Fold this protein.
Amino acid sequence: MSPMGGRFSSLTTRGRAFLAAGGAAAVCALVLGQKDLLRVAVFLVALPIVTVLVVARTRYRIAASRSIQPVRVPVGQQSSVRLRLENAGRMPTGLLLLEDQVPYVLGARPRFVLDRMSARWRRDVGYAVRSDVRGRFPIGPLSLRVTDPFGLVELTRSFKAQDTLLVTPEIHALPPARVGGEWATNGENRPRSSTADGQEDITVREYRDGDDLRRVHWRSSARRGELMVRREEQPWQSRATLFLDTRRIGHRGSGPASSFEWAVSAAASIGVHLLRRGYSTRLVTDAGAAVAATSRESGPSADAEGLLLDALAVVGQSSTGQLSHASINLPRDGSHGVLIAVLGVLTPAEAEAMVRFRQRASSALAIVIDSPSWALGKERAPEEVAEQLSESLSMLRRGGWRVAVARAGEAIPQVWARLTLGEGASVGDTARAPHQTAAVAPDAAGTPSPPPDLVGGRTP
């Protein structure tokens, strides 16, 4: 297409009508020999042509910006998007048509019509978005259509800027309960202790560039033949590991009402619950994803919660076939602290793998989802599945796990209360298992860890 043809493609319906009317008037004027009608025809044809040439040479300086509040929102809640337009040039604009690009899950594509914008004029428009599914959704770019004052020509401009809206899983308030947990420092060592002869047991490490020379421990340096410095003491902090089973084979249902979405929401609720009570929380999945979030000593950290929720907002189902020692992405060294698992349907072999990982945790709690109850009667061999689930639960309990079964329609706080407080336990669930008290587990150096703390209170 020639440059001139591209310019005339911006004519509106009104502009094309002017050209058609001008052409028809010119033919009639020539046939009838009417000079006045010919003048009208020239005017009708010239007006859209001149407008196209003028608008093509005119550079509209329109600036646009977008803000989203809040940028992170739970499913089912609204977020506000505000667009700011500014005519930074000296030329006034005609009618403006705005269209912002949004995914279909956030609602209909917003469109706005603005009247003529004078020079240096500024306008603000806004709209709301809402999603019933979690995820990371791009918003933008913004497209802008500008018309001339006569409405004969329409120009389309697109801005490249995009923003992101993060829709996180729904978070439920959980009742405080004692779950135990290993106390660990958030620094590099334990506080000092005293040896049997009363001398101070000082923990040291190799000297690193930038270390303060006043921290050099000369006695250890002389004994090892290299500079050694004292390690800094750090306050104690409870530690928790949250495991989420994302296997597609372990869940049933589809969409927001599936057992997998219930599990993600439960993991988000438990993770935020632990962070707000001072736990250093590590989220791991069978697919290899791992996120570590640490709350501040002064109180809950929005950054730590955001880090956890950002990961859960985009987590998807994995193709892992079976939970095993290789697929469970838990740390291979050190202790897990308190280990909390949200699991799909388990086989006895998978339950045995979870029991092995229980050995490095001061206490272990598991929510096992009765996925067939989400299948609406379409599960194959339901008796066989129920028997397999019952055997897996028995193995977990014998291995030291505190277990609660989650069925379709049950609220997450209700299952959490049954798991931690023993409230509302039903036959075949926590009522059959004795209430376990978290034991004091020794750390890597053989020193017993401090006693389990109370979730809902502050950590010393």
The radius of gyration is 34 Å. The CA atoms of residues 293 and 307 lie 7 Å apart. DSSP finds nine helices and 21 strands in the chain.
